[in-house]
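If you are new to this repository, start here. Below is one unmodified record pulled from the training split, so you can see the exact layout before writing a loader.
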Amino acid sequence: MTKVAVVILNFNGKSLLENFLPGVISNSRPSGEVYVADNASTDGSVEMLKSHFPEVKLICNPTNGGFTTGYNLSLGQIEAEYYVLLNSDIEVSPGWIEPIVALMDKDTSIAACQPKILSHVSPEHFEYAGAGGGFIDRFGYPFCRGRIFNHLEKDAGQFDDIAEVFWASGACMFVRADLYHRFGGLDDGFFAHMEEIDFCWRLKNNGYKIMYCGQSAVYHIGGGTLPKISPRKTYYNFRNNLSLLFKNLPTQKLLPVIITRLFLDGAASLKFLVQGGFAHFIAVFRAHMHFYRKIPSLYTRRKKLKQQQVSCVYKRNIAVEYFLLGKRKFSELHQHLFQ
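And here is the target side for that same chain:
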């Protein structure tokens, strides 16, 4: 059985594979075996992989099921101790695998871990999707060490540490293969966005830890599939965030948080509208309508899951901290308020 399977999910990303795959292959040896799982691409990706990268193991999914189904189908065909879910638009650095695997080998309670994720465009800064490890606030809004909303901190070594976090980024997530399958993998209903937060929360609800390892670094372009300004991304983010809250919150917090989110998301949608983002306003509305329709099926799933109080939740509202109090850096937050 393979120790580490580095699995890149691809959909019409031929140019990204041509650019970044050689570095992934060379910098993953001898620790990791590289796979590309293709989601029914139509841009010649598969043909290119077969002709130019015969050493890469290729898995061809029959349809484009998005990030979630694509990985679930692919990882079901790979036997390994650890999976690395790696975006196709990431440049990895030499020795990026070993520190994380060594950390996880030492502590079997660690279910998943991410490296430091820096910007490929501006390498001195953290990158949006993961940065120095992910957290959520009491109302489920995600943020990172090194990234709060759209503010990206400069990497000055402040997160060269090893730390427990709430979620590891799906852009580059190491996860124990047996736990991935035991706890159901990524939620197929999410399609894309926030599925890794939902999965990490599920792991934490079952007593496992999510970690960040600053001794490993990768460089992410980001926004390759859906740009941050995309109304479709707004829709998935709001829709999926409500779903993960409903599935994973402890019972005593469920109704108060969902009701509060109704008002907070309403305020966010009005902010979009005032700023001329009518499409984003509609996206938030559609996300809520989808969530309300899906409550019966979400409730059925919730009953099959475990919910409990977990660590690394910020007890305040990160939106208030950022927009009203002007806190832009993780170090400016009240560290004693992370439960």
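Two things worth knowing about this chain: The chain has two domains: 2-220, 231-308. The longest helix spans residues 278-303.
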